[in-house]
Give the backbone structure.
Amino acid sequence: MTNSIGQSVPRIDARDKVTGAALYSGDLVRPDMLHMKILFAGRPHARVVSIDASAAESLPGVVAVYTAKDVPVNEYGLQKKDQPVLCGPSPLSRGAGEGPGVGVVAGDIVRCEGDQVAAIVAETEDIAAKARDLIKVEYEDLPAVFDAAEAMKPEAPRIHPEIGDSNICVLDKIRKGDVESAFARAVVIVECEYHTPYQEHAYLQPEAGLAYFDEQGRITVECAGQWTHADRSGIAHAVGLADEQVRVIYPAIGGAFGGREDLSVQIVLALAVMKLKRPVKIVWSRKESILGHGKRHPMTLKTKWAATKDGKLLAAETTIIADAGAYMYTTNKVLGNCTITATGPYFIPNVKEDVYGVYTNNVPTAAFRGFGAPQALWMAELQMDKLAEKLGLDPVEFRHRNALREGDTLNVGTPAPGRVSIVQCIEAARDKFGWTIDHRPQTIVHGPSSIVRGQGFACGFKNVGFSFGYQENSWARVELHGKTGIENVVVWHAGAEVGQGAHTVMAQFAAETVGVPFEKVTMVTSDSATMGDPGSASASRLTFMSGNAIRGAAEAALAKWKIEERPAIAEFTYLAPMTTPFDKETGYSTPNLSYAYVAQAVEIEVDLETGFIKILRVVSADDVGQVINPALVQGQIEGAVVQAAGYAITENFITKNGHILTDQLSTYLIPTVLDIPDAVESVIIEVAEPNGPFGARGLGELPFLPIAPAIAAAVHDATGVWFDEFPLTPERVLRGLGKI
């Protein structure tokens, strides 16, 4: 063996990204290329009565203006095809059915301000922008609803009357044990209502893409995404073609975090190319990006937890209402994960949960790093802190006492699969941080007397891979080239490199399995036409699934090499252990094939005069199963901590009556170098996952999960005040302290 596993080999894409040689979607050009702009609806709920594009079409340099009538199948959506490609009158816009050319969604209805109404194609970007401003749209405004709880009421305006008689689009239930009896015998009960906010993905590159016909006559879309084959399927459906007539290629991708799981510009690019037979390019501005893609789900979480006098959790009863916005996107899957993680990584024998996803006329909500777990754990971890306080117990000891052990059942009634390592994570974070039962420091620190210091602790867990009965799979091909010895290994895999280092890890898997130096591996990636389905770069699944697929293909290629087949080429599709969906009434299931665990400790300062929070130190103990590339693991932990700190403190996403008010990075404040923690200390735990490649688990989402509640606990430690909603902006902190 070459010992590639466990080594911090350099990223294979590092040089090109540092030198500027890497081409992102916005960098792409082709001869005879046209440019596109999108007209957004700009209103939350309305019927498009008419569209007059004549002035735009007569502008010199304009090649075409496309509206709903031009879309062959005017519907799309990753989980439910409930969104029009373009909103407007068309022969198909009021149809119902599943056949070619027929849409089930009412295509003439605008349901959020980010709905697209027209696509303008011109010789230059400036001309396309001018033409967009000349289009006249007549709207008939419709009653709208912007509060998820209000949208659940029978009298609320219907967002999708054509596909349901209620705005409730998701309902998950948990019924475990006897909650009422448990509360009756409890010694300590904590009942609270929590709120979590939107979050904007704020990836480096806004949506952009280039489409053209390839040499085999396929519509080819080069655009950032997270799942080549799902993108291809969505595009092909909407333009009325077979999947094989559409090709999706990923260039370099400037971040994703779940925000690129859903389609944005891909379909309209393909539509224009299909009709014009010329390459077409689009690049969104940052404002268009914030307006046009989904956000993290805001939630209201009402809950009551109980414990015994000796500090054992007894019962939890919870109702969660999540704002799905105008369309499904991945709300059903996000809330499935939220349901599972709502009891934290703890054993609770009696659980009742009702989790609702609700359509509104707000911006759609979508996948975002953590996928429902950050919201659920905000609630669960603060409940743990408040129970510990009532019981007079140290919050870390209370967590340790109740942490899941091997064989303990989750809230779904079945034990967690694989190795359960939350106890090891708690102990590692506790010890590295130096947490003791009398941990509380002097509240006044050196410097201004208004500065107080506090410490907090929180835990989390997260599924690895898709869930609820989906047959997880991933394809790979490995080629071994050489005469007497293996001179080059070529790995074909379509998994998306969204900045996490996935392609480097894939090469390490191949090198380790074949037994060659890492430098002998060449990666060929992210092309739906030349590779099988990799699955998505989401759900912390890609390292796990691609590793098993590449290892399987490499082993098969080695077997051919040993019988002197040259080159030795093998394909392999990994099929993961099956999962099962929730029972509709009880939630009983084995919903995931693997989980990963995390514990974090933080130290912060609060300025009592300004309300400003400064993060001094974060210790994050994450179980990765088997570390593949330590430097990449450390990078993922540090990046997740910074992103989660922004979610917790600075990123105040504001909407009013369906309109996004913080539509620029000057008003939506992501952390700068002056806002990040002074120190992030990564503690890597390795408890091998039985089904993981070389024992690896997924990591990408894990370090994000507990930061917000850990910071809130530290603020309480410093000030004595609990905050049940965030972000903890200076204004909110001062209000909580009674200063304003």
In short: The chain has 17 helices and 25 strands.
